[in-house]
């Protein structure tokens, strides 16, 4: 089985964990509702009450079951145990880009965000570029 997965941080091309996505098929650029925070060496996507009205910029890839299971481990997701997971995979609707209106999965940050730096524009690649310029 295949899955459409929205990525927005270090898994994207040119960033630290891009190798984790090498067997995935690029489907398109996208934006989803939520907001980003810098939680250290990577970003966290926030949804729901904590998300405000922002959007997060990223890309959607098609991955198979085995690839998704590997990514769950990379993201610190413990299937069936949200309380023990750093990120939790959830369904979101794409609100911008060529895949607008489609349901995709993404990793939502599942830890306290006190002390995290907000990424107001919702684009982690742009945020990282500004830091290292």
Please specify the SSE layout and strand pairing:
Elements: E1 2-7, E2 25-33, E3 35-38, E4 43-46, E5 55-64, H1 65-74, E6 87-93, E7 103-109, E8 117-119, H2 124-131
Parallel strand pairs: 1-7
Antiparallel strand pairs: 1-5, 2-5, 3-4, 3-8, 6-7
Report on this model:
This protein has 133 residues and is mainly beta. It has two helices and eight strands. The chain has helices at 65-74, 124-131, and strands at residues 2-7, 25-33, 35-38, 43-46, 55-64, 87-93, 103-109, 117-119. A five-stranded mixed beta sheet has the order 2-5-1-7-6. β3 and β4 (43-46) form a beta hairpin. The chain is globular and about 40 Å long. The mean pLDDT is 94.
Features:
5-stranded mixed β-sheet, 3-stranded antiparallel β-sheet, single chain, 133 residues, mainly beta
Cα-atom Rg, whole angstroms? 14 Å
Specify the biggest β-sheet: 5 strands, mixed
Alpha-beta content class: mainly beta
Helical element count?
2
Query: What is the molecular shape?
Result: globular
Overall pLDDT score: 94
Helix share bin: 10-25%
N-to-C terminal Cα separation, in Å?
Answer: 41 Å
The count of DSSP E runs of length 2 or more, i.e. the number of strands, is: 8
Q: Low-confidence parts, pLDDT < 50 over ≥5 residues?
A: none
**What is the ordering of alpha helices and beta strands?**
EEEEEHEEEH
Indicate the proportion of strand residues. Answer: 35-45%
Instruction: Describe the strand arrangement of the main beta sheet, using strand numbers.
Output: 2-5-1-7-6
């Amino acid at each position: 089985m295949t899955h459409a997965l929205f990525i927005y941080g270090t898994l994207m091309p040119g960033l630290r964990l891009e190798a984790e996505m090498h067997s995935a098929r690029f489907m398109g650029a996208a934006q989803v509702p939520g907001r980003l925070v810098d939680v250290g060496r990577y970003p966290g996507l926030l949804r729901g009450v904590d998300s405000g009205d922002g959007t997060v910029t990223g890309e959607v890839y098609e991955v198979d079951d085995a690839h998704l299971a590997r990514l769950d481990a990379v993201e610190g997701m413990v299937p069936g145990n949200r309380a023990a997971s750093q990120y939790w995979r959830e369904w979101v609707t794409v609100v911008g880009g060529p895949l607008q209106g489609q349901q995709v999965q993404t990793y939502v940050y599942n830890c306290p965000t006190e002390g995290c730096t907000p990424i107001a524009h919702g684009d982690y690649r742009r945020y990282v570029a500004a830091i290292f310029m």
